[in-house]
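Let's practice the habit of predicting before peeking. Look at the sequence and jot down your guess about where helices and strands might fall. Then scroll down.
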Amino acid sequence: MATGKFYGVGVGPGDVELITLKAVRILKTADVIFTAVSRQSARSVSGRVVDAVDGITGKRQELVFAMTKSWDDRMNLIRKNAGIILSELRQGKNCVFTTIGDPLTYSTYGYLMKELQLLAAELKIITIPGVNSWSALAAASNTILVEDKERLCIVPSYSAVAEKAALEHAETVVFLKTYNSRNNIIDKLDCADEELLYGSNLGLDEQFISTNIEQIRKRGKEYLSMLIVKKNG
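Done guessing? Here is the structure:
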């Protein structure tokens, strides 16, 4: 059975100008463009970036995913959405799934891709990388992440063990999705020996970037958020 091509396209961290030329080209030639939205949010950040690209003629469709601790709940929606995409591919349509940041780095796309591979081993899958969020935060603040032999560690801020290990073994640590753990991480730092940079909703109207610990502490829970911690010296 002939199938269309499936593209996973990273559209960058949220700034509509940080999408690559290759991503734009693929979006303009797609028959169907899928964007992700969570149950907890009515807004698709990747969809907002797609909206800013001129010349797109493909059908648009939002897919709902679960951002929850329940693994079964998450996987049930991933399987359901993989089936929706596959039904379009089986009609010979070229389909794109867009994701913020990079598709192969802490992304729903990875799970979706593996599920599609299980359902249709013959499917041609093409992944287009995207600008990641920590590079955008570093650029927006002119922060050098690492130099020479320094080590960079990227960790999701869910595990206290991972957080401690990262701080011990790297000169710069990026903590992703700090909505529940931000102030706890700050409490563990030695502010005399470490520099702190916080960013949330990068590229969006509500973007916030600060090195002021008291300002950072007062922020509410922000899903699209991160802390960059650098050791002095």
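How did you do? The domain at 6-128 is CATH 3.40.1010.10 (Cobalt-precorrin-4 Transmethylase; domain 1).
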